[in-house]
Amino acid sequence: MGGKLAKLARVDILGPALYTPVRDDFRRQIIALKKPRRVEIGDKLTLTFENRDTLRFQVEEMLRAEGVSSDAGIQAELDVYNTLMPDEDSLSATLFLDPPRDEDPRIRLRRFVGIDEHLTLELGPHAIRAAFEPGRQEADRISAVQYVRFRLAPAARRALATAGTPLALAVDHPNYRQRVALPDETRAALAADYG
To answer: What is residue 137's predicted lDDT score, i.e. its pLDDT?
Structure first.
């Protein structure tokens, strides 16, 4: 598989020495790219749909922050972030749990335990339950960052490619219920990843 859904390779990564001089420009591009991909689901959850460019940015930022420049170190980061790459059969996203800051973090996050059964992408007539990355929650605790996939059957892929197809995200967790309709700009940005 090539193009916009291809896994990142070492040749795609600048590394800290070459990335730092172009970082500001690259960050501006990614901020603009993320705008239609970033969705606030009420006031406590934010979801960002990932693609090859957003994940490349995350790899470059991580390498810069950690001062990693060896090929082995870069490959290790690529191995991690490539697992988050959307593919021909799924959208990929990062979900941030962001409850009020004036509460104890352990308490504020605990209310989201079980959310992995309660997030749905509504794509036209298709209701697609999110598949969460395992190991990021336990019976009494949960990570503030979750990685999710929405599996796309062929009919859902066609719906995504069709201008005007309604798109929404819904959460029906007992402690948090929200539904947000997404603009066609979001649908178009996601569909472009498959074009």
So the answer is: 82
